[in-house]
Design a protein that fits this description.
With 176 residues, the protein is mostly helical. The protein has helices spanning 3-39, 44-71, 81-99, 101-104, 112-133, 142-173. The longest helix has 37 residues, at 3-39. The radius of gyration is 18 Å and the shape is globular. It is a multi-pass membrane protein.
Length: 176
């Protein structure tokens, strides 16, 4: 292994928790937006509008929260702002890179009836892959690590879809 490879591995290991945290939340929250909009039977353009708004606003919020969390540690453990900002950047990068995946089904030419299934498949595959990838840097079987993230994301998507269905019915019944 070359020194450059060793340095890259060390860097990835150092920021892996931030990347995984961001990627997991990015996929889950963006897919939840997609599922909620589909559950409410709203147009696909709403998915893209809310999806991208969520992607960047929540990505910035997650990154800033990570920086503040790093800076809130006890004096002896508190990293410099520059270091904390790197953790925040890793969270943002993971969030946006993985969070855009469910929106891809609405950006490529697919039959409208296939888009949600494609978004769900892409989101769940990404969650499994990110989860399984943790096993390269943490003592955890890759199948279990992937399945954990997959289950969390699937549950969140199901909740969002259900809220979309129920919310649309309630708002329709209320005449809103």
């Amino acid at each position: 292994m070359s020194p450059a490879d060793a340095g890259l591995g060390a860097t990835v290991r150092r920021y892996l928790p931030d990347l995984v945290y961001g990627a997991n939340d990015g996929v889950v929250t963006t897919f939840a937006v997609v599922a909620g909009v589909v559950g409410a039977d709203l147009p696909a353009r709403v998915i893209l509008l809310l999806g991208f708004a969520n992607l960047f606003a929540d990505g910035v919020s997650m990154a800033a929260s990570n920086v503040l969390s790093q800076r809130s540690k006890a004096d002896g453990e508190r990293p410099a702002l520059r270091v904390a900002a790197r953790n925040g950047a890793a969270t943002f990068t993971g969030f946006v890179a993985a969070g855009v995946v469910p929106l891809l089904a609405y950006l490529v030419p697919l039959a409208p009836g296939n888009r949600f299934a494609a978004a769900a498949g892409l989101a769940l595959a990404t969650l499994f892959a990110v989860g399984a990838g943790r096993s390269f840097f943490a003592p955890r079987p890759w199948v279990r690590a992937g399945a954990e993230m997959l289950a969390i994301g699937a549950a969140a998507g199901a909740v969002a879809y259900g809220v979309g269905v129920l919310g649309a019915r309630w708002l329709g019944a209320a005449g809103i």
